[in-house]
């Protein structure tokens, strides 16, 4: 959290190039005080449009087997190539959070799930995302390999490969899930929660 760098546009460095110009008139945006706004904003000096930059929602699931194991995927793409995470992706503009959870899980794992309780909601400031994790019952399908996932396999709560989990938010979601289903198990040391990839 402390290593998050915000550039002169008030956004993480990697995001700067994507919010440089006014989406209405194409002028270069400036960052600073704007009337009636309580914090500095990116705004257009030509047409006055204020460009609000807010985090996007990443929808994920912890697909749970009948034996109480969680299905994780070994990521086939960056960030986190080769490391483990739960399935998930960006919420599309025309779908509900629940629909996105079902779609992303099917696309990345081949598993059909029924999302249940929300395990938690997590901020990744450097990536400008908020991640929601649903506990999800597996109701069909079969594990598949895709471009995005090299492998999908179940892990018992006591066998989570903590040092190989791709994201800090995934570590936190898995920890919160285990704290609920297996409160007797020790949770990972903060030292293992060290990976965070910008975008
Ligand atoms: Zn403009």
Total number of β-strand segments?
10
CATH superfamily of the largest domain: Nucleoside Triphosphate Pyrophosphohydrolase
Work out the radius of gyration. Answer: 19 Å
Task: Give the termini distance in whole angstroms.
Answer: 14 Å
What is the overall number of helices?
2
Would you mind describing this structure in some detail?
It is a single chain. The protein has 199 residues and is α+β, with helices and mostly antiparallel strands. The chain folds into two domains: 13-51, Ubiquitin Ligase Nedd4, Chain: W, CATH 2.20.70; 56-192, Nucleoside Triphosphate Pyrophosphohydrolase (Alpha-Beta Complex), CATH 3.90.79.10. The chain has two helices and ten strands. The protein has helices at residues 97-109, 168-181, and strands at residues 30-32, 41-43, 50-51, 56-64, 70-75, 84-85, 88-90, 111-124, 129-141, 149-155. A four-stranded mixed beta sheet has the order 7-4-9-8, sandwiched between helices. A three-stranded antiparallel beta sheet has the order 1-2-3, with no helix packed on it. A hairpin with an 8-residue loop joins strand 5 and strand 6 (84-85). The longest helix is centred in the last third of the chain and has 14 residues, at 168-181. The model has no long low-confidence stretch (mean pLDDT 91). The protein binds zinc ion. Zinc ion binds at residues 22, 24-25, 27, 44, 46-47, 49. Zinc ion binds next to loops.
